[in-house]
Amino acid sequence: MAAGALAVAVLLSPGLAVAAEAHELSGATMSLWWALPFAGLLLSIATGPLLFHHIWEHHYGKITALWAALVVVPLAIAFGIPLASEAVLHTLLTEYMSFIILLFALYTISGGILLAGNIHGTPAVNAGLLLVGAILASVIGTTGASMILIRPILRANDNRPFNAHVVIFFIFLVSNIGGSLTPLGDPPLFVGFLRGVDFFWTTTNLWRVTLFVGGLVLIVFLAIDIVLHRREGGAPKIKDPTLDTTVRLRGLANLPLLAGVIGAILLSAGWKPGISLSILGIGLDLQNLVRDAIILALALLSLRVSYKSHREANGFTWGPIAEVAKLFAGIFICIVPVIAILRAGHEGALAPLVALVTSPTGQPNDLAYFWLTGALSSFLDNAPTYLVFFELAGGDAQHLMTEAAATLAAISAGAVFMGANTYIGNAPNFMVFAIARHRGFKMPGFFGYMAWSGLVLIPTFLIAGFLFFG
Fold first, then answer.
1. Strand partners for 114
2. How many CA atoms lie within 13 A of 199 on its CB side?
3. If you write DSSP's letter for every residue of 192-212 in order, what string do you get?
4. Which residue of 194, 232, 356, 464 has the fewest CB atoms within a 10 Å radius of its CB?
5. How many CA atoms, within 13 angstroms, populate the side-chain half-sphere of residue 120?
C-alpha cells in the first residue's frame, strides 16, 4: 500500500508537473525485467479467479495497484519523475479513459434493455439466437450482447437434459467472434481505433474471415444440437421451470442511446478541428474529449430513463464494470515499458519476438501474427495482447491500414477470435459461465471447456489462418 501511495503521489503532485517537451522512454536501454509487472498482473488476472477466488474477489484492486506501483516507482527512479509521469499519464489520459468510458457506457445502456419472455430452445431457435447475438456483438459490444441474450437463451434451454453446449457456443460466437466487425465490438478493436485505425476499417477488412469462421462454427453447433435434441426425444421429460411466453423487448428508450454512442464515435473519427487542450501537461484532442463527454452523458441518461425492474431482471450490478475499470487501469500502466521495448524493434530486449513474426526477407509473417496474437489472447486479456502486437508491427495506424493491412487484419482476428479458446480469454466468457452455472447448467471446468474449443475452434482457426493469412 505504501508503494501504491507513492505511485499516486508521483503522478498527482502539482509540484511534479510534466514537462511539455518530455521525450519518450528509451526502450533500447530497458531489459526484460521491465515486462515482469505486466506479465505478473496478467498471470494474476488469469489464475486469481480460479486458484484463490476469495482472496482475489476481495483484494484484486490492491493486487493490481501493487503491480502498477512496481512499474511507476522504478520508472521514476530510472528515468526521472517528469519523464515517468509523462509516459504513464499519456497512456491513462489518451487511451485508458476513452477505453473505459466506452465500456462503461455499453455496459450501462445494454443493462437497461430486457428481452423478456421465453421460447423453447430447438436447434433452429438456438441457432437463430446465436446468429442474432453474434450480429449484435459488433453493435453493442460482446459484453453488452452477452448480458442481454444469455438469460433468454438459458431460459429457452433450461428444460433440456443436454444444454451446456449451447452456452459454450454462445461464448464462442456472441462473447467473442461476433464482435470483430467494429471498434464497438471488442476491446482490442477499440484500442486500435484509439491508436488511429478508421472506424469502418475492421468492417471492410474482417467481414470475410468473420463470416467464414462464424458461419463454420454456427454450422458445427447446429449439427451437434440437432443430434443432441434427437437423443433427448427418448430421455425422461424435464418439467420446464420457465414456461413458454411471448418474447418482448423492454427498455426501448435505450436503443437511441446506443445509436448516440455510435454517432459520437463516428463524429470523433470525421471531425478534426485541430484543437488540443492540455490536461496535466498532456495534449488531448478536442474531438476525443467531446466524444467521451457525449458517451458518458448517454450512459448517465440511461440510468434515468431505464426501469429499475429491467436492470434487476437482467441481474445488473456494478461489480463487473468496477472490476474491469480497476484491472485495465493496472494493465495500461504496466504495459508502458513493454510498449517502449517493442518500439525499439530489433534493438530492444524483445528482438527475438520481432524476428519470430518477420520472414527472412524482412516482411511481416501474417500467419505468425495471427497465431501468436491469438495464442496469447487465449490466456491473457486480448486488449493488451492486441496492443503489444500492434506496436510490434510498427504502431503506425496509417501504414497498418494500407500497405500492411493483411498484418493488421491478422492481429485483429487473432485477438478477437481466439479470446474464445478459454474462459479467461475475454471478459464476458467467465461472466457467462458464472451465470449459467448459477442457473443450474452443468458447465465444464476450465480444461473441459478447452477440450470443446480445441475440437471446434482450433481446426476452424487452422483453416481460416491458411485461407486468409497464409
1. 250
2. 14
3. HHHTT--TTHHHHHHHHHHHH
4. 356
5. 5
Mean pLDDT value of segment 266-292: 86
- Alpha-carbon distances of 228 from 221, 318, 444, 445, rounded to whole Å: 10, 37, 17, 20
Classify strands 282-285 and 276-279 as parallel, antiparallel or unpaired.
antiparallel
List the grid coordinates of 65: 495497484
Average pLDDT over residues 362-377: 89
- Supply the pLDDT for residue 367: 94
pLDDT tens by residue, 33-47: 998 998 898 888 777
For residue 371, the model assigns a pLDDT of 94
Radius of gyration of the chain (CA): 22
The answer to pTM > 0.85 is no
3-14: average pLDDT: 35
Whose cell is 530486449? That residue is: 349
Higher pLDDT, 135 or 141: 135
For the cut 80, the answer to whether the pLDDT of residue 115 exceeds it is no
- Joined grid coordinates for residue 214: 462464424
Q: 363: burial class by Cβ within 10 Å (0-12, 13-18, 19+)?
A: exposed
How many helices (H) does the chain have, and how many strands (E)?
Answer: 21, 4
Closest-CA residue to 364 (of 389, 393, 326, 343)? 393
Beta bridge partners of 278: 283
Please give the Cα distance from 62 to 183 (Å, whole number).
30
Task: Examine the pLDDT at 434 and tell me if it is beyond 50.
Answer: yes
Give the confidence band of 21 by pLDDT, cuts at 50, 70, 90. very low
Q: How far apart are alpha carbons 302 and 9 in whole angstroms?
A: 35
Which of the given ranges, 145-154, 263-272, 274-283, 363-372, has the highest pLDDT on average? 363-372
CA distance 413 to 461: 10
User: Which residues are bridge partners to 282 per DSSP?
Assistant: 279
Helix (H, G, I), strand (E, B) or coil at 32: helix
Question: CB count, 10 Å around CB of 145?
Answer: 28
User: Residue 20: what are its φ and ψ, rounded to 5°?
Assistant: -65, -25
Contact 355, 157 (CB under 8 A): no
> Amino acid letter at 245?
T
Q: How many CB atoms lie within 10 A of CB 461?
A: 21
Concatenated DSSP letters of 84-101: HHHHHHHHIIIIIHHHHH
* pLDDT in the model for residue 127: 94
Q: Which of 386, 434, 436, 381 has the alpha carbon at shortest distance from 407?
A: 386
